[in-house]
Write a structure and sequence with these properties.
Structural class: mainly beta
Oligomer: single chain
Largest sheet: 10 strands, antiparallel
Shape: globular
Helix content: under 10%
Length: 210
Amino acid sequence: SGLRLELGSGGGTTRLRAGPRLAARLATDDRTLLSAALGRSAQYTQALPRIGTDGDERFFPGALWLVAGPDAPALVTDLATLGVERWMGGGWLGSATAYARRGNGLVTHDPTPGRVAARRTWVRGVERAQGIELSARRLVGATTATLAYGWARSTVDAAGWRHRAPQDRTHALDVTLAHRVSARWRVGLALSAASGAPYTDVVEGYTGTD
């Protein structure tokens, strides 16, 4: 267990924020290990990526960074995890981890439909994410390998709208393989794949005034 105290600004006030942490591990036998953890953290800088189309960019050429203060909130995130690990024989270790995360005070784009130029520069939102990660790793021997799969879902609530987070990747797959050819040489390969990122379609055109 642990506790972190921070004195920081955000949202127009300066306040004392507590970041508690609690983690526990239980060995049910010599092959199986259960774990659980809870934690809270605060972040005082956030970035907005570029907005708009090629001909009308805001914040070009990079991101707009905001520091928590009178006008911008601090991002407070709560995270909970629950996992299990088990030795499966042959040097293989299997694991499964489920998690849930909630971030309050997220600085994000205004999701209101309509003209980009008419929107607010940023709005305050809440991000929620949950998922599960499965993996099998061979950690010993001349040949080692990793096979990992993750399923996740992340959404943002802001300005009365709910949408999938731009960083959301529903499916993710990672594979690695390495072989020790000799005492000095090792060969390997790696593969990473993920499902597509959600995005909002931006249409360029002219708007009449009639």
